Amino acid sequence: MRLIFLGPPGAGKGTQARTLAEAEGIPQIATGDMLRDAAARGTRLGLEAKSYMDRGALVPDEVVVGLVAERLEAPDATKGFVLDGFPRTLAQAEALERMLKDRDLAVERVIYFEVSERELLRRLTGRRVCRQCQSAYQLVSAPPKREGRCDRCGGELYQREDDSEAAVRRRLEVYAAQTKPLLEYYRGRGVLTTVVGEGAPAAIGSAIRRAI
Ligand code: AMP
Known about the structure:
A hairpin with a 5-residue loop joins strand 5 and strand 6 (136-138). The protein has one domain (2-117, 173-211): P-loop containing nucleotide triphosphate hydrolases (Rossmann fold, 3-Layer(aba) Sandwich). Helix 2 crosses helix 3 (44-53) and helix 6 (117-125) crosses helix 7. The protein has helices spanning 13-24, 31-41, 44-53, 61-72, 90-101, 117-125, 165-179, 182-188, 201-211, and strands at 2-6, 28-30, 81-84, 109-114, 127-130, 136-138, 157-158, 192-196. The termini are close together. By secondary structure, it is an alpha/beta fold. Adenosine monophosphate (AMP) binds next to helix 2 and helix 3.
């Protein structure tokens, strides 16, 4: 199972990728999580990435492609993977295609999460994320049982710096300009399926299952 979850920030890719990856025993490869982790550890790469992330810009292709190439080499990725938040540019998509082709592999299915801009803004500005396990909550529609604490692991919930309204607007612009063209790229390869990303998470999960 070699899958890509594609869609704007706040579309629910991470939540669905985590559930599916756990159920299938394959890794969720989330470049945003990997970059935030590197930033929190204070590595050179992480600090460089943080300056882009905090203002809602994309981290340069060569940095992200390098991270993903290394991650795909790990033994657990041989069974398959869910790429969440990668690729985000045409250059990244082409680099991924080359990486897989070198091993006679290809992406099997790309799930596009369709969500209205109004809903994305609402979700992102009210989003809180667990520092430990990265589970996401929504203050209005999916709050944690105990305020400020993760239901799954008890970790502390925080608001990502790039979930401020200004950064969210910038991220949506960047998405429209740089990532949206990937829809045509994957449609042309016959692997794109659109899933409506609004409604109950379990129903969205079932739609993804049907698509794969
Ligand atoms: P995410 O958690 O997927 O919303 O990603 C958060 C931020 O990390 C993005 O706004 C970018 O700054 C950076 N990022 C994550 N994935 C990529 C990628 N594939 N290419 C470039 N930047 C990325």
